[in-house]
Write a structure and sequence with these properties.
This protein is of the alpha/beta class. Helices cover 37% and strands 12% of the residues. Strands 4-3-5-6-7 form a five-stranded parallel β-sheet, sandwiched between helices. Strands 1-2 form a two-stranded antiparallel sheet. The structure holds iron/sulfur cluster (2 copies).
């Protein structure tokens, strides 16, 4: 692997190893912690050019890098400026975590209340603090790999990194949590215990963590591929659940509005 800038191969003068950078925009730093926990496994294969969360010597954002991992959503003007700079210099850009992939709770929280009125209510009308409606990275730049999770799964992180280090884009599926749940031979908490499990419409990757311990999935990895919103709404309604409250959990984690609009069209009282 090598640095590529404007189509030209460049040598990394600091190390013969491929370089990675780990950045955080607006988020809780959960993914940064997962990457930090796994850094020992990565260190033999990569040069960490920037990881302000973990080290004090860091290259500037405008230095070329092979793989840039970015956590967090774009929620402040300086997030957007950094994202553009990092994208311009990164060969591969990996969005890590639900905030970067879907916008997560920042985006969910902005649905009912405009960001400006929340800013005023929190900091007062004269505050110099600025904020943007929270958005995922791919609304602003090309994202090469989306690794969802809240937080991400370590095994997926290492597999994605290994694949990119071989110069291959990894194959990531967003099959529903139910698939992993069945592979673990769990009893279905939706069918057997009547719990409001969102596993059928939530992307897997966590190994069906919550249902494995008898709890309902609340959608923290974001929506699955082609989520069957209407069927999920019908099942929850048959079980007597308020759709706004239960399906709203998926939206609290940043799922796009159009999915909820589908539910409203199929079930007008939702
Ligand atoms: S418990 Fe939830 S995730 Fe598991 S099979 Fe049932 S609905 Fe799907
Ligand atoms: S809420 Fe759903 S997606 Fe999140 S960890 Fe639990 S089972 Fe997995």
């Amino acid at each position: 692997m090598f640095l590529v800038r404007n189509g030209e191969k460049q040598v990394n003068e600091c190390s013969p190893l491929p370089s990675i950078a780990v950045h955080g925009l607006t988020g809780c730093a959960g993914e940064l912690l997962v990457i930090l926990e796994n850094l020992e496994k990565l260190i033999p294969y990569v040069w960490v050019s920037s990881f302000p969360f973990a080290q004090s010597r860091n290259d500037d954002d405008d230095r070329p890098v092979d793989i840039a991992f970015i956590e967090g959503s774009v929620s402040q003007p300086h997030d957007l400026a950094r994202l553009m700079k990092i994208r311009a210099q990164a060969r591969w850009l990996v969005a890590v975590g639900n905030c970067a992939v879907w916008g997560c709770v920042q985006r969910g929280g902005c649905r009912k209340e405009p960001v400006d009125s929340m800013l005023t209510a929190t900091y007062g009308a004269d505050s110099p603090i600025q904020a943007l409606p929270s958005t995922p990275l791919d609304q602003h730049v090309r994202v090469d790999v989306k690794l969802s999770g809240c937080p991400i799964n370590s095994t997926q992180l290492l597999a994605v990194t290994a694949s990119l280090l071989r110069d291959h884009l990894p194959y990531i599926t967003s099959k529903p949590v139910c698939l992993e749940c069945k592979l673990r031979e769990n009893a279905c908490v939706l069918i057997e215990n009547n719990l409001p499990c969102l596993g059928p419409i939530t992307a897997g990757g966590c190994g069906a963590l919550c249902p494995t311990y008898g709890a309902a999935c609340y959608g923290c990895w974001g929506p699955s591929e082609e989520p069957q919103m209407e069927a999920m709404a019908t099942i929850l309604q048959e079980k007597g659940y308020a759709l706004d409250e239960v399906m709203g959990r998926l939206f609290a984690f940043g799922a796009p509005d159009e999915l909820f609009d589908r539910v409203k069209r199929s079930v007008p009282q939702a």
